[in-house]
Write a structure and sequence with these properties.
Helices cover 16% and strands 45% of the residues. The chain is of the alpha+beta class. The chain is rod-shaped and about 185 Å long. The chain has one helix and 26 strands. It has one helix at 221-290; strands at residues 3-7, 11-14, 20-28, 34-42, 48-51, 54-57, 62-69, 80-90, 98-106, 112-117, 120-123, 127-135, 141-148, 154-158, 162-165, 170-179, 189-199, 205-213, 315-322, 334-336, 346-354, 361-367, 370-376, 382-393, 399-405, 416-423.
Amino acid sequence: MGLTASLREPDLRVVPGQEVTCQVILLNTGAVVDQVTVDVVGAAVGWSTVTPPVSNLYPGESAAVNVVFHPPRVPESRAGLVPFGVRAVSREDPAGSIVEEGVVEVEPFTDLGAIIRPTTSRGRRKGNHRLTVVNRGNVPVNAAIHFVDPEDMLTFRVNRPVVLTDPGVADELRVQAIPRKRFVRGPNQTRPFQVMVAPEDGDPVLTDAEMVQLPLLAKWVMPAAAAVLALLVLGTVLWLTLLKPTIKSAATDAVNAQMSPLSAAVDKANQQAQQAQQAAGQAASAAAGTDPGGGGAGAGGASASPNAANPPLDQPVDFRIQSDAAPRTDNGFNTFTASGQNTKPLDITDIQLQNPLGDTGIIEIRRNNKVWLRFGLDNFRDYDDHFVVPVHFNKGDTVTFAVSCKNPGGKHCTPAFTFSGRTTS
């Protein structure tokens, strides 16, 4: 028994997605009828077909078997030489099986795909996209990235202007579409463009996208600004018409409430002093009329008087000292006096302090440059006091009004000091 097999075309070429056929001639050189099975071994076994796979041969008979190679058009069908073997197995003589070898060359093909996501970007200064380049061919591809802007309204940035991808690999790039000009207000502007992936060999791939350019000021900014402005105006009106007068009235009521007990006490003391003076006068008059050694009104030719040595202070007088003091950063004072106040002896019975503009700082009332009274300007707007026992000033004594102004913003302090009493006639 014997079997022979031969390949008519051991060297083949095929494009993925297509097919090529190789013919195998089988010959039964034995003396009995034989059954021969033919198959393909090697790397091409997955994309090869044998027709017919089994042949029955009489002695001396030959048969032709077709082996078809049809690699699919996928990246796994790598370009290059792929060796194969055609094996013929005899049923009558398995040990006499034959393998004939050949080579099929898988030709290269290029198939690029490009996908951009999102297809529409939105932004005021730029739009961000992701470009995915997919190599569906069977050879590595070196491709350049280009952009097509029909309106010439955009510039573009890509993190890699050239991409090298292996078969079956997807590569992602970052793309930015940047408007050449910006606008402050108005409707959104749509900027269409295309991304071109151009391989060294093969046709370029185009994908469409667009960038929606937004105005620099969003639509809600102006209404919001108008609403805020309206609230500010309303708040100012409420403050000037309702809140500020109410707060000022409450502060005035609080000061008056604190001063009322003091004023009542002063009035009561004045009444008691007047009653005491009347009682003392009546007692003196009674004593002068009954004194046995006094001699009456005709004794000595004159009437005795308890105030003969100190003539009465019977001329009313008042002075007003108006200040105008600049703010100070130290603790010093500006001093103010009234002219003509020290020409006669003076008894002060009433004082009044005025701070109509609400200045801040410290004031002092000094007697001969020594502090007599000290007040904080923050504590009052109007203040007056009455003395049960008058404060006596000799001729030549001075009353000084001293102001230490602490107003912010350079505003001058203008408190005033008024005092009244009597001088010698």
